Amino acid sequence: MLTFKSVNVKSSARLRKYYKRCTYRLCEYSVGVKLMWRHHMDPSFAEAGDCLIVRNAFHGSVAFDYPVPLSESADLSAALDAIDAYCREMGVLPAFQTVPEEALPVLLHRYPYATVSNSRTWQDYLYKADDLINFAGRRYSGQRNHINKFRKLYPSAVFRPITRDDAEELEAFWEAFHLAFNKDAALAKKELCYARKLTRQIGKAWPLAGALELDGKFIAISLGEICGDTLICHIEKALPEYEGAYPTIVQSFAAYYGKNCTWINREDDGADRGLRTSKTQYLPAEMGRKYFVEISTDIRNLDKIPSLCSDRLTMDAITRADIPDYNRLCLDDARNRWWGYDYRKDLKGEWTENYFYRVARTDFKRKLAVNFAIRREGAFIGEAVLYNFDYKGAAELGCRILPEFAGHGYGAEAFARLADWALYELGLYRLVAKCYQENEPSRRMLSAVMRQTGEDETFCYFEKRI
To answer: Which CATH class is domain 126-286?
Structure first.
């Protein structure tokens, strides 16, 4: 299973190895955004298939970035498989945030039950690098006028790179900027705090930073990084009393660092009216759309566990009245041996009389599993579980019968009925199952319903498709 490590200053070099080659053109696929917003999004990372996998945790929900390949030989499918396996192990449904437009068809093809949203608020402003470097043509006459006025008012102002030796001058700029800051929005205040902290990384290998300097002090600064063919601008700040400083820092930063780039990303506007107006006036060539993709399972629309019938049996939801017999089944060590389950190790929290009943109900509510009670003449005799959804139209089916009802074919009958329901009524593409090599009764039962697809030292594997 994937093991995630925290994104922090120490791990930035590892992330940068991937992001410097990244072609997604979105600001979230950069070291600067990961570091700047790490207290907000709590990102962590792992690697699989020669790809970078980032997990974000926000307001208690987990969502992944789309994997970032290291090279042309990287295996994006393997990285997505690793995410799926992690989600199954953790008992959560996969979700992907800030998915680039070119990756959306991949996810929609892979996952048959996906919902997609695309908020205007978080779309990035993408400009052709040549446009911001030259401000050529009538459409940019306003920006040129502002810059010409700035040059006339402040002829001694110059643009230069910021280095680690400029710490005092940089802190003086931030003090002056804080005094002039007049936004009340909580997100804007966070952004200002995070931006100031991020400039402490100047002098490291990844940041590109520059300032407009006038009479020995900074009056505007910008910080960014190049990812693929895109210069991503994380910070653009100017003291408001210097008219024309903003378009001048935009052009100067683009000209100095973006001359070998195709695109310049000035990030999103966070629904800030002033930022939206400003970024729009620079005439973006495109908006960098970011899709949020939530993956569900085949039981996403199942409001309640249905009642099914076979020749001798009925199958429906486990009820409170079943708790004594259900506990007896779940606590049966002989049965658990073949079930591949040890409640002592897997128990989450303290065991109570309704523990297993509560887990079954919770798993169904979260659309992770469907636990059926198997009944003979109304009495609880066993359980069948549809679980371990792969999010691509397949799931696993398991069945166990109380010992006093074993040997009468009830398990095979229930298994066959539920397999038909899962494939023909629920709509699964594929159903899988497995049994231990030494469990001959289960092997015979599965062979009667499904096709064996393989085996290893421990298990025999079966599947049924439609």
So the answer is: alpha beta
The per-residue pLDDT for range 220-265, each reduced to its tens digit, is 999 999 999 999 999 999 999 999 999 999 999 999 999 999 999 9
**Per-residue model confidence as pLDDT tens digits over 405-415:** 998 999 999 99
pLDDT digits (tens, 9 = 90+) for 161-180: 999 999 999 999 999 999 98
CATH code of domain 5-122: 3.40.630.30
Residue 412: how many CA atoms within 13 Å on its side-chain side?
14
Domain boundaries, the chain: 5-122, 126-286, 308-465
The residue length of the chain stands at 466
Query: At 188, which amino acid appears?
Result: A
| Res 307: pLDDT | 97
Calpha distance 133→330 (Å, rounded)? 69
CA dist 313 and 421 (Å) reads: 14
Six-digit token string for 75: 């295996």
Percent of the chain that is helix, strand, coil (3-state, to 5): 40, 30, 30
What is the distance between the alpha carbons of residues 364 and 258, in angstroms, rounded to a whole number?
52
Helices 440-449 and 410-420, packing angle to 10 deg: 40
Domain 308-465 has CATH 3.60.140.10: no
